[in-house]
């Protein structure tokens, strides 16, 4: 009899976790979510993401991204219907940002990054290749994801593996105990609720906060993904651009505004975003300035950040009836980057529970986060 699992959340973290679990006949998975791929809502972060693979973790905490990169690159190389393609990436370091504290995506801009050995074509740019005002830069081939294609592709893969998806609005984690599609008791609940973990009864994680990101999507295509270490337009504004696969347009960003729930794009901010992107990539509009950009839409997404970082662990205090609760949320702006690595960790915890290495949720509390990792 397979263990019955109910997973809350149909963002990239939830769907990837459901997909990896569904590959084992030992598990029967139901995904319950308020929002599904195809929806655009301020509470639902995944459709608004760029999305690309730009490492943002520290050297000591890179497992999630290091484990995700092989799968995303495999999909880009051999599964075109997933909506992922390879694109050259450049990361620029401004001189004036060297001493900036708590910069968005900080580890991405380290001068000697751990990910230099992750990409076979990683190289440092020569001085003559640098735009004015840049101290240094690196270049490598990464991937960019068309979220409007990739998220439905994940749904299709889950469905093919027998995962059942249900729409529902959940106010308390206890409600999930009766929501498996078999209508029988649930053995394991997985919480991949993202930003809504701060409002979910039984979790109410007050360390989860939104980080508002405003973007502009244009029809113009860029040959290279670009990230810069800072801007002169204020602490909440950043600069990046990337072209999505299979006609998804080019995403221009952006902002990094902690604690801001405002779902409405600001026209003045949009103007600054477009100006900054054209300064770093003037060829984007063929030298015509902002008027040369063909805008598809403006958007705002809320990155589901968590003070203290990611929570991927068993929660032994949630239930007293033997039901296991596992959390997988708090990814901030790197949910796609770490999607397969974090899902793999959830599968490890579930496998341990099933095989008897951990015979109860209480026993899980005695196991280190890394103790059963295959590293």
UniProtKB/TrEMBL annotation:
The keyword Oxidoreductase applies. SUPFAM superfamilies: FAD-linked reductases, C-terminal domain, Nucleotide-binding domain. InterPro entries: D-amino_acid_oxidase_CS, DAO, FAD-dep_OxRdtase. The keyword Nucleotide-binding does not apply. GO terms for molecular function: D-amino-acid oxidase activity; FAD binding. Keywords: FAD, Flavoprotein, Oxidoreductase, Signal. GO terms for biological process: D-amino acid catabolic process. Coiled coil: none annotated. Residues 1-18 form the signal peptide. One of its GO terms (cellular component) is cytoplasm. Its cofactor is FAD. PROSITE patterns: DAO. Residues 5-349 form the FAD dependent oxidoreductase domain. Belongs to the DAMOX/DASOX family. This is D-amino-acid oxidase. It comes from Tolypocladium paradoxum.
